[in-house]
Amino acid sequence: MDTINLSKKEFNDLKNLVYSTSGINLHEGKLELLKSKIAKRMRLTNKSYKDYLKYLNSNQKEMIEFIDTMTTNHSFFFRENKNIEYIINQFNRHPQKRTKEFKIWCAACSTGDEPYTVALQLKNLGLSFSILATDLSHTVLDIAAKGIYKKEKISRVPIPILHQFFQKGTGKYTGHLKIKKEISQHVTFKKFNLVTDMPPPTTFDVVLCRNVMIYFDIETSEKVINKLYQTINPNGFFAIGNAESLLNLRHKYKSIKKIPSLYTK
What we know:
- The chain is an alpha/beta fold.
- The chain has 2 domains: 8-70, Orthogonal Bundle (Chemotaxis Receptor Methyltransferase Cher, domain 1); 82-264, Vaccinia Virus protein VP39 (Rossmann fold, 3-Layer(aba) Sandwich), CATH 3.40.50.
- Helix content is 40%, strand content 18%.
- The strands form 2 sheets. A 7-stranded mixed sheet has the order 6-2-1-7-8-10-9, with helices on one face.
């Protein structure tokens, strides 16, 4: 394929389109990445460069697919589990834990590793819960809903939990494992745009929004975290990724001592 040449105007137009759609902030250091991702989508859609740019501007679903290629979606079970473990321990000490249904929102669930990780630990303690798992990308949501993963994705799952809540794949799924229905039935996957969509009309005991703000500028980060703040119950938890920080952002969250990246309302 011929080398793609983006003019400064084309780069800025694409940058602004991606930003307005998803909040992802592309600086000029991302130019080569942007060009390679355009080339990939051109191959998949069988379109010329000019035709693809027109298609991208006029087709929202393709725009989301394109944005999806700009993010890593690097996830695995029990990733950065310390703050989740802390939250679940607090739930397990709750005076009404036997009658309460704990409500969790995984606001950028990617391929489902995070919500299932939470579900596995809650189910293992016999707690009642429901999880809303959302993402911008149709592609990752389809993967998450299937609940089928390669063994390396679940290498950190404790063996007793693995044996209890996963089933081995056969045939074309040899080397894969599937989440059992007794776990998946507690998780609802939905498409949600953190930047443009109105939050759900319910409130949650926990909102997880981890490893998303690394793509946002300060303005978008503030907008998102304060939107999410409104959905958290009093004294509820808010978790971000270990590589992220709320420093320099205007917000009302209170940090939890000695537990990085975890806050309360």
